[in-house]
């Protein structure tokens, strides 16, 4: 006859940890950042700007619908907007490649940002991607090189650069448009070096433990503000941006207005030096002596 000890479930702690992770604020914010009705880049562009004129093509291969770029006016001030765009329904998702840019998208964005610098226009980038597209065709056309080139060139743009993570900030796919003088995140957005599912597959050998990985990654706006990686958090309506897109856009408007005002008086040299100093300090938590 088996003992009472044998009847007890084996290793109950991982199950408890998994249940706790599913209800953690980190995993809940991952779900809000991915909500199917969450406003995307074009939703904010429509509400915030006037006379938006989209520009297409990287002048090397083609156009990438996963990134939208164009000239617009913000409260009468001309600027350039670059946004990563996800689709809403199946047809749009396929057209936008689920918001995963290819090399031509990053090169298009860089072309537009260099145009902005030439005419002294501020640049706004809206980050919302699960990551850069990892397909064979993207690798053949130089995906890693395109991202690396954007990181280098954005660091020395002579115009003010403001980056706002409006949904998912997925690894280098988001960072390739995120080298800014001011970096903000919406309250329920996430920004991470890797997706929770991929992290769980590597660390726990089980992608279903994504909720546990989300807690470990410290990917929320509150986490990143505490680490000094972003400059501020933009509040969302109760329940998330999808419950009231107009109010979410108004909150973005207020933050953008203030950031543009703060950066307006800086010279090109000061903007570049500020951007350089900001990113050099990231990850430095120790000091000699």
Report on this structure:
- The chain has 289 residues and is an alpha/beta fold.
- 45% of the residues lie in helices and 17% in strands.
- It is built from 14 helices and 8 strands.
- The protein has helices at residues 4-7, 12-22, 25-33, 41-48, 90-95, 103-118, 136-140, 143-154, 171-175, 196-203, 210-217, 221-226, 245-263, 268-281, and strands at 50-55, 67-74, 77-84, 123-129, 161-170, 182-186, 190-192, 232-234.
- Strands 1, 2, 3, 4, 5, 6, 7 and 8 form an 8-stranded mixed sheet that branches.
- A hairpin with a 2-residue loop joins β2 (67-74) and β3 (77-84).
- α2 packs across α11, α6 packs parallel to α8 (143-154) and α10 crosses α11.
- The longest helix is centred in the C-terminal third of the chain and has 19 residues, at 245-263.
- It is globular and about 50 Å long.
- The protein starts with a helix and ends in an 8-residue tail after the last helix.
- The model is unreliable at 1-5 and 8-12 (pLDDT under 50).
């Amino acid at each position: 006859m088996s003992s009472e000890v044998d009847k007890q479930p084996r290793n109950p702690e991982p199950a408890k940890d998994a249940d706790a992770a599913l209800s953690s604020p980190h995993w809940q914010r991952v779900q809000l950042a991915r909500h199917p009705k969450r406003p995307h880049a074009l939703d904010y562009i429509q509400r915030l700007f006037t006379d938006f004129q989209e520009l297409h093509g990287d002048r090397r291969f083609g156009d990438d619908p996963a990134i939208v770029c164009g000239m617009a006016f913000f409260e009468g001030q001309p600027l350039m907007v670059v946004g990563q765009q996800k689709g809403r329904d199946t047809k749009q998702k396929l057209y936008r490649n689920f918001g995963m840019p290819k090399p031509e998208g990053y090169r298009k964005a860089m072309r537009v940002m260099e145009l902005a610098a030439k005419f002294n226009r501020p640049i706004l980038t809206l980050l919302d991607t699960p990551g850069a597209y990892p397909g064979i065709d993207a690798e053949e056309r130089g995906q890693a090189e395109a991202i690396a080139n954007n990181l280098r060139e954005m660091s020395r743009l002579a115009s003010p650069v403001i980056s706002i993570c409006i949904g998912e900030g997925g690894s280098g796919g988001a960072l390739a448009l995120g080298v800014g003088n001011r970096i903000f995140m919406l309250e329920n957005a996430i920004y991470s070096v890797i997706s929770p599912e991929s992290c769980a597959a590597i660390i726990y050998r089980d992608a279903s433990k994504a909720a546990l990985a989300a807690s470990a990654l410290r990917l929320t706006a509150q986490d990143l503000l505490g680490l000094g990686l972003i400059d501020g958090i933009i509040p969302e309506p109760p329940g998330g941006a999808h419950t009231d897109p107009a109010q979410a856009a108004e909150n973005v408007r207020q933050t953008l207005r203030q950031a543009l005002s703060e950066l307006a008086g800086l010279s090109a040299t000061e903007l570049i030096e500020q951007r350089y100093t900001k990113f050099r300090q990231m990850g430095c938590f120790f000091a000699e002596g």
